[in-house]
Amino acid sequence: MNTNTVQIPNILPIVPIKNKVLFPGTALPLQIGRKDTAQLMQRIYKSVDNKDTKYFVGCVPVKPQHTNTSSKKVTDETPNQSTPTSELHEYGCAARIVRLERPVGGIGGRFFVVVEGIARIHIDQYIFGRPYLEAEVTVYPEQVMRNDDQELQDLAISLKSTGRELFIILQDLKLPVQMLTQLQKFIDGASPGSLADLLISTIEPPYEEKLKVLDAHDLKSRMTAAIDILTRQIHMLKITQKIHSTVEGKLDKKHKEFYLRQQLNAIKEELGERDDTSPEEDDVADLTRRLQEAGLTPDADKAAQRELKRLKRMHPTQAEYQIVRTYLEWLSEIPWSKGTSDTLDIDKARSQLEEDHYGLETVKKRILEFLAVLKLKDDMKGPILCLLGPPGVGKTSLGKSIASALGRKFHRISLGGVRDEAEIRGHRRTYLGAMPGLIAQGLRRVGVNNPVFLLDEIDKVGHLSLHGDPSAALLEVLDPEQNSTFNDHYLNVPLDLSKVLFIATANQIDPISPPLLDRMELIRISGYTFEEKLHIAKRHLLPKQIASHGLKPGYVKISDEALLKIATGYTREAGVRNLEREIAGVCRAKAVEYANANDNEKTNTYCSEITIDDIVTILGVEKFDDDIAERMTKPGVVTGLAWTASGSGGILFIEATQMPGKGNLQLTGKLGEVIKESAQISISWVRAHSFQLGITTARTESTFFSQRDVHIHFPSGAVAKDGPSAGVALITALVSLFAHKCVPPTTAMTGEITLRGQVLPVGGVKEKIIAAHRAGINKVILPSRNRKDVDGDVPVNVKENIEIVYADNVYDVLQAAFDGEKIWMEPSSIVGVESRL
Ligand SMILES: Nc1ncnc2c1ncn2[C@@H]1O[C@H](COP(=O)(O)OP(=O)(O)OP(=O)(O)O)[C@@H](O)[C@H]1O
């Protein structure tokens, strides 16, 4: 349409439009919501039959409202409340109404109008007074381009070529063919001013930019603004197109959303509007930074880079994304090159060990030797220390003391119940819910590569089974030659454990597999005597418990006798764990008492002293009474010494009785094969020597045993018992029974016997003697060949209180058991053969 030929009045009814801009030469559909404009439309609608009348309006955009134009969804192109004229833009477009439809919804419905832009207008002045808005306007006829204006010519060429470029892109975006043909026609034939208007209304740039083009009634500034906007939009479209082409066709709904976001980010970035990165990108960037800071080994770095690359290609909602991300997190959190520096001073270490533990002299000495060598050698390629002893003797806390003496971080790995090799080595990543093993987890927790790892309860670790062999995995961990390249299945890169100081603890030696045992140096810690327990309680346990119950040091004062009472009457153990628990019970009671007094403001009535009587009141009736004192001296009852499965020693009673019968031997008390055999040997030996022992009156008497049944019982019937060391006690019990001689209950014995009556050495002597001491035994009969154990290990104060008698054969045992009385005839005085063995 040639705008120059159309007569536009200079007073026009005004139609405010929101978020849209009408340009000359373009059409715009509108819904009329504003009341006054609707009245205008009503009027036009009524007079529409008058074919000669041309209905012109001035479409004036509302000024951009920065706070809500972008966020509010516009459903109505004309503002539905009377917009103040101050909010209307000063330029607009004179338009002809080409279509007008009445509201379908009756009163309150909206007119639908299609307007066609004719010329730019400037609002000179608003005229009020009519039911609708009117304004005096200046109409800008389309400027004719002069051929001699080179600058304008150049701009026109540039605009056309930009238009063509846009066309090519739009073609690629598969817009409707009709629209494309029209556009091409326009590019080829339209005047530069109209082309600028058309292109800007086609590509939908931001509202403000459109307004800028509307304001440009001068051709030069319009073309310049249009070229500028078009160039930027083309650039953006190219990026969109690039992203589009790579993802097109392959995506499901979620992928599409992800890539649309990517497109949006790319567009924003191009516009310089990008304010923040997406959370996924943040995540990957953060992970990359953490990996860079982790000081990875070359192998780990290679794996990390490979996985990072995969992660970047993945969509965050993919299940695999989290797996790769967790793996990378693990890699970034393993202390590959971070370590603490050792502050080993032997004197300091000695005082640290002394401070933390009472007694344990040989253990402390060996630990100090170990630390000294460590300091001189400056590497960990030494034997692995294994602290072996019953529960509660301070193995774990010794490990802690070593760590603090070295100034290293400490971590305890509990191996009790570890049945699956993967718990040590980790699961392969293909496994659902895969995790690194306990070693890698420990390293991550401490955050340094040279901690002290305490492998607690190494004897409880499982052996070869369906789930692999955890103890074989430990072999690699503990071997200084191999552990610099330990392979955790999850991490799947070599992990250097050569700087870690491993210390193991165990209760028993037997369950530890021989190859594992071979790699460790055993340091035995036996149970404590009551004397030692008293000192430990006084120096360590009581202050610790007082503090942990929120009391001050002077608030609980327990006399030595009372402490000893707790140890003897309420605990029966090799270690001090139960003792600590009972002391905690006392502290609790005192804490309640003090808190009560404090609440009633009677703290002066609070008594911190605790006597033996108080102990009974607080802890209740004694749990363990004295086994020895209670037992009556009776023929057939003998005290033996045992070594329990937990590694602590104890006393055990053997009761034998006889009754008329047929020479049967009955054994009860949950006995194992070996102990049953010992009983057989004992009865055979006693039968063979019955005349010599004065049991039978004639050497050839055979009816004595065939008319009697013998029953031997080991009380504490629920506790399984086995081993050969009860042999001497069994023979003594039988001799005592048949000879009607009593063995004092304060005499205990241990030793294996042979059929010839020889006494063989047994294990756990130190623990047995300490247990005997605890139980109030004052004479212990031991095999002679165990003398070295007593000399080396048993504490001096125990040896001072217990008489130890060494025996080579049964006669030595019987003599010591019956208080030096020889109840048998010397073999030389007996005519005949004693034994053929
Ligand atoms: N000689 C000691 N001096 C001071 N405290 C001790 C001593 N022995 C043990 N304790 C204390 O006894 C408690 C139990 O010790 P710890 O946990 O080290 O026992 P453990 O030998 O490792 O037992 P388990 O074999 O059951 O693990 C700790 O509070 C520890 O401080």
TrEMBL record:
Entry keyword set: ATP-binding, Cytoplasm, Hydrolase, Nucleotide-binding, Peroxisome, Protease, Serine protease, Stress response
One cellular component term from this protein's GO annotations in UniProt: peroxisomal matrix
Family annotation (InterPro entries): AAA+_ATPase, ATPase_AAA_core, Lon_bac, Lon_bac/euk-typ, Lon_lid, Lon_proteolytic, Lon_Prtase, Lon_prtase_N
Residues holding ATP: G389, P390, P391, G392, V393, G394, K395, T396
Motif (Microbody targeting signal): 835-837
Catalytic residues, chain numbering: S725, K768
EC number annotated for this UniProt entry: 3.4.21.-
Annotated stretches, region: Disordered: 66-86
GO biological process: protein import into peroxisome matrix; protein processing; protein quality control for misfolded or incompletely synthesized proteins
Location of the protein in the cell: Cytoplasm; Peroxisome matrix
Family matches, as PROSITE patterns: LON_N (PS51787), LON_PROTEOLYTIC (PS51786), LON_SER (PS01046)
Span of domain Lon proteolytic: 632-820
Main localization category: cytoplasm
Source organism, top-level taxon: Eukaryota
One Pfam family hit: Lon_C
Name of the top EC class for this enzyme: hydrolase
Molecular-function annotations in GO: ATP binding; ATP hydrolysis activity; ATP-dependent peptidase activity; sequence-specific DNA binding; serine-type endopeptidase activity
Residues covered by the Lon N-terminal domain: 12-234
Family as reported in the entry's similarity comment: Belongs to the peptidase S16 family.
Function as written in the Swiss-Prot or TrEMBL entry: ATP-dependent serine protease that mediates the selective degradation of misfolded and unassembled polypeptides in the peroxisomal matrix. Necessary for type 2 peroxisome targeting signal (PTS2)-containing protein processing and facilitates peroxisome matrix protein import.
NCBIfam families: lon
This protein's name: Lon protease homolog 2, peroxisomal
Species for this entry: Gigaspora rosea
Lineage: Eukaryota, Fungi, Fungi incertae sedis, Mucoromycota, Glomeromycotina
